Amino acid sequence: MADLNDARNTSLSTASTQEGKRVKIVHLSGPIRIILETDEPMEVETFTREQLELDGTERASPANNDKDFRVVCLSGPIQIHLPVDQLGAFRTISSEELCDNNEGQGTLFTPIDKNKPSATEFDCNNPNDTLSPFCPYIPGNEILLKASETGRPIRAKILKYFPATLSCCMVIRFLDPPIFNNTSECVLKLFDRRFSTQQREEREPWSPELENKYQKFVRCGDAEELFSYWNAEKEDFDEWSSAYVRNSRRWSAVKWETYLHWMSTTMYKVEKKAYEHMTDLQGEAVPKMLGEVVLDQAPVVPEGEDDPERMEEDSASISSIDPDEHPEVVSISGLLLQHIEGFHMTDVHEHLPYEHWQSTVDSAIEVLHRIQACGIVNRDINTRSFIVNPLTRKVMMIDYGLVGFREDCEDEQTWDMVQANQDEEGAVGQVMRAMLKGKGDGGKGIVYKPSERAWRLLYRFGSEEGEMEAGTEEEDEYVEKHKDFVFDK
Fold it and tell me: In which domain of life is the source organism classified (predicted)?
């Protein structure tokens, strides 16, 4: 489904209607599937131009599950006009109608009926709002785990849940045992594809029925076969993903579920490896890794199963899958991490006075340099990944599920090129400079001064003439010329 809030898929501009209301103009491209709420259930999906010519402009189809719906054929370019102050209802218009409207022939949107209920938008920042109604990670609930190394059972209580991540991240308090690895509370980062909000943005929500299909896929050996294939692809190309598969959009739901589990397992391995590389930084620049766990899962049986014998058979068959024999395709792994108290660096202007903004951002860049020195490059650098202690102003970095390692590069030159292309330092300094611009007293902000390392990488890999040789007098002259340059406020 086209996400109207996703800047990667849309381009936004504003326009005025004849009634003086402000609207957003959203230009959509690619296959679009739109679910529209109406008085009667309606489902709208797009067809190709060839299908349009063969089938006509509108056709009715048999309803699934006794629901009425219509199939409407749309042809691009398509513009959807959304009232800025009243999101929730919209209609499509043709390019001809748009031209007429721009010349003063009618309005550009359908007025909203405020008395009509509208669909609730998913808010991943609300701990009580989860992607699936089956999600058990709710503050107050208990969670059962097992220590990966010893198999020791662990019972804990969920204190806080952070749903807007690639994993399921929560603060827990240990109940039995009350102390684990010298701590009573920590962050549990569980790589659970079932309830990962970001991984399932374009997938159907998890359900017990879908889980049964996946478990059957595991038992017949198909899941392990796909894991082997995808592992080989990633071994050959570290950044491989489903985006490189031409027909991935036609994958079945259970194959997508297998892929999501593979992705979660891969991110767990990567993040664990990253913390092992940063042993000397743990507790200083990054959180301490306190342990590794797996979710202690109960047998999955769909609700509403009215055949007791079938229920017992399904329950037994699912529970008979031995995680030791199928560790990758069955187990849901997690990391226990030190709980860092503080705020996201993106909110520094709300928590610290202006005179501390510059030093805080500089500290974050220094932390980044120390992590890079461990042979790690972050492919998903985000300024929200830096947590600032409001009392000490100490900065730590979190989230390492999408990183690369120096050891995976052929040579030092390749590693330098990877770092140059990623430009992690600029992704922090420049973004924070732009974010804080004008927010200080008297319209003040912060500056960003690139490091010498950043200038050397830019000289070698940023030239339009191609890659330049390293360690030359020309490189030294370039660095000397630019070393004092500052991106100002």
Answer: Eukaryota
CA dist 301 and 134 (Å) reads 12
CB 323 within 8 A of CB 294: yes
Q: Are residues 196 and 91 in the same domain?
A: no
Q: Are 308 and 256 contained in the same domain?
A: yes
Same domain for 278 and 218, yes or no, is: yes
3-state secondary structure the chain: CCCCCCCCCCEEEEEECCCCCEEEEEEECCCCEEEECCCCCEEEECCCHHHHHHHCCEEECCCHHHCCCEEECCCCCEEEEEECCCCCCCCEECHHHHHHHHCCCCCCCCCCCCCCCCCCCCCCCCCCCCCCCCCCCCCCCEEEEEECCCCCEEEEEEEEEECCCCCEEEEEEEEECCCECCECEEEEEECCCCCCCCCCCCCCCCCHHHHHHHHHHHHCCHHHHHHHHHHHHHHHCCCCCHHHCCCHHHCCHHHHHHHHHHHHHHHHHHHHHHHHHCHHHECCCECCEEEEEEECCCCCCCCCCCCHHHHHHHHHHHHCCCCCCCHHHHCCEEEEECCCCCEEHHHHHHHCCHHHHHHHHHHHHHHHHHHHCCCEEECCCCHHHEEECCCCCCEEECCCCCEEEHHHCCCHHHHHHHHHHHCHHHHHHHHHHHHHCCCCHHHCCCCECCCHHHHHHHHHHCCCCCCCCCCCHHHHHHHHHHCCCCECC
Please give the residue range of the domain that contains residue 456: 343-482
Cα-Cα-Cα-Cα dihedral of 358, 361, 366, 370, to 10°?
170
Q: What is the pLDDT of residues 436-484, one digit of tens each?
A: 999 988 888 999 999 999 999 999 999 888 899 999 999 999 999 999 9
Note whether 387 and 476 are same-domain residues: yes
The residues, any chain, with a CB within 8 Å of residue 126's CB and separated by 6 or more, are: 163
CATH code: domain of residue 387: 1.10.510
Length of the chain: 489
Q: Do residues 223 and 235 lie in contact, with contact meaning Cβ atoms separated by under 8 Å?
A: no
pLDDT grade, residue 40 (50/70/90)? very low
Domain boundary among 337, 356, 384: 337
Pick from 432, 285, 287: which is nearest to 346 by CA? Answer: 432
Query: What is d(CA 18, CA 106) in angstroms, rounded to the nearest whole number?
Result: 8
Residue 35 maps to a domain: yes
Q: Measure the CA–CA gap between 383 and 432, rounded to whole angstroms.
A: 7
pLDDT in tens, 92-145: 444 444 344 444 433 333 333 434 333 334 444 454 455 578 999 999 999 999
Q: Are both 412 and 318 inside the same structural domain?
A: no
CA 136 to chain centre: 20
